[in-house]
Structure formats: structure tokens, C-alpha cells
Design goal:
With about 290 residues, the protein is α/β, with parallel strands linked by helices. The chain has a single domain, classed as Alkaline Phosphatase, subunit A. The protein is built from 11 helices and 7 strands. A 7-stranded mixed sheet has the order 2-7-6-1-5-3-4. Helix 5 links the parallel strand 3 and strand 4.
Length: about 290
């Protein structure tokens, strides 16, 4: 049996009696997802930006950062270029698979606080620095942005002639310094916590972008969809894969120019993370 089919059969056997599983794994991505992909008002994959084809030396990824919220907390006039772009995914795994999957980027080092890097694209890059495994803050339930900055600066020193992708987990939850998690309990409080987490992560992302040589671009893998009531009951919240709602796929593209560095290619290596499922559960992906 083909491995993908074997996994699907196994998953169905384990979850056939779970309404939540059928809703989140079948109804939302395949039924609602198909409707959003076919709807002319929603951004399609064809108009999405393919990040590896764009011009940058450092790509800073703010996980789950919506463009409209980015514009409320950042002075977009400070950037050398700012625009909204469409993401290839509404979920980290989809974004990584569509941008990196089955390709090789020997000229790029990926510094990641997100476990999906190892799960989806662990053998695509010259090196993957797996912060989610060895620098995870158990008290906060996430890798802190200051840790990401330190690792990115160290990676640039070790690999001065490689492009860098630096993946922060903020503003994705768990929200640092807040116990708010479920928007159905208090949606306004959730938005505030999300905004504060974005401000927190963005401050470090900006400092890093100004510190590293070359052209830095701050963007996001996907956005965030909040809902209550019937929409939430149907599973239309957070960031499920294959959905093309603007709130999920319209993300910022903010560039800071600097003296360009010389980029050279090389071999690719394979990520070695072994605690992927545990970290995904801690971050709310499972």
C-alpha cells in the first residue's frame, strides 16, 4: 500500500467516531476549502507569492501574522518597500510544503521556532537550526523571540554567504504573558493578546532586520481567523489548511534594504528533530 494511503487509512481507523476529527480533517479543508478556492472573491494560489523566488537576503517570518494587524502596530512608512501579498498557505505546513517541498536550497539556512520545518521541509536547506526542539521555553510554551534573534545572528556569523529564513512563532499562540487562548470565551481579549504578542515579536524582528547585512523582508506564513457561534462550531477558526479566506492568506511584505551580501550555494542537510509531535501539541497544532 502507498505510504500516504496507509497513513490515511490508519488515521481514519483511529478517529472514525470523532466528530471533531471529521470536521477539522475532512469538512473544513476539503469541503469548505474547495469552496473558498473556487470562489472568485477569495485569493487563489496562482496569485500567491513564492518566497524563494523573491529578492531578499534574510526572510523574517512572523507566524500567523495578518497584514491588517501588522499595519496597525507597525509604521509601514519606515520600510523601504511595503505591500500586502498573498500566501501559498493558510497553515504553516501548507505554506512550507508549497514553498519548499521536494526542492533543494543549498544557499539557505533556516532558523526555525516552528516544528513544521523539520516535519515538512527538513531536508530542503543547507542547514535547519531547530530552535523548537532545543530552545523551547516550557514556561511560556513557545520559543521566545529573543532566543530566535540570538540564533539568527549566530547563524549569520557561521554562514555569512547564505540566505537566512528566520521563523518566529509570534504572534501565534501561546500568547506570551497572557492566559487568553480560547476566543469563544472572550474574543476581544483574544484580539488584544494577539496584538500584544505581535508587538512583542515584531520589535525583535525589526531589530534583527536592521542588524543583519543585506536586504531583509518581514512577512508571515499565514494569517489568523477568529470566529464564534456557528462558524466556530463548523471549525472555521484559527488557521486550517487549504482555506483561502483573506484573513488567512493576506500577509505583510515589508522590506528593509542594506548592503547586499554575496550568496553561495552548497549541499543540503537533513533536520534531526525527534520531538516534533510533542512540540506541535504544545503549540496547539494537534
Amino acid at each position: 500500500m502507498v505510504p500516504g494511503i496507509r497513513r490515511a487509512v490508519s488515521e481514519i481507523r483511529e478517529n472514525y467516531d470523532s466528530i471533531d476529527w471529521w470536521r477539522n480533517r475532512v469538512f473544513v479543508p476539503y469541503v469548505v476549502g474547495t469552496l473558498t478556492r473556487l470562489h472568485p472573491a477569495y485569493p487563489g494560489y496562482d496569485e500567491a507569492v513564492r518566497v524563494m523566488d523573491e529578492d531578499w537576503d534574510t526572510l523574517v517570518v512572523l507566524d500567523a501574522c495578518r497584514a491588517d494587524f501588522f499595519e496597525t502596530v507597525a509604521d509601514v512608512e519606515m520600510f523601504d518597500e511595503y505591500r500586502r501579498v498573498v500566501s501559498l498557505g493558510s497553515h504553516s505546513s501548507e505554506w512550507m510544503r508549497r514553498n519548499f517541498g521536494e526542492r533543494e536550497f543549498g544557499d539557505t539556512v533556516y532558523v526555525s521556532a516552528n516544528p513544521h520545518t523539520a516535519l515538512v521541509a527538513g531536508d530542503c536547506f543547507h542547514e535547519v537550526v531547530e530552535l523548537w526542539e532545543r530552545e523551547f521555553d516550557d514556561e511560556a510554551g513557545v520559543v521566545l523571540p529573543e532566543t530566535v534573534v540570538d540564533a539568527a545572528i549566530a547563524a549569520n556569523e557561521e554562514y555569512p554567504h547564505k540566505r537566512l529564513i528566520v521563523h518566529f512563532m509570534q504572534p501565534h499562540g501561546p500568547f506570551v504573558g497572557s492566559d487568553v487562548d480560547d476566543p469563544s470565551e472572550n474574543e476581544a481579549a483574544h484580539w488584544r493578546a494577539y496584538t500584544e504578542n505581535l508587538e512583542y515579536g515584531l520589535s525583535y524582528a525589526l531589530d534583527l532586520s536592521r542588524t543583519l547585512p543585506g536586504r531583509s523582508v518581514i512577512t508571515a506564513d499565514h494569517g489568523r481567523l477568529y470566529s464564534t457561534g456557528l462558524k466556530r462550531s463548523l471549525g472555521l477558526y484559527a488557521h486550517k489548511a487549504r482555506l483561502r479566506f483573506p484573513e488567512l492568506v493576506v500577509v505583510p511584505w515589508a522590506a528593509i534594504d542594506g548592503e547586499r551580501r554575496t550568496i553561495s550555494t552548497g549541499e543540503t542537510s537533513e533536520a534531526t528533530g525527534v520531538r516534533v509531535e510533542e512540540r506541535l501539541r504544545q503549540l496547539g497544532y494537534r
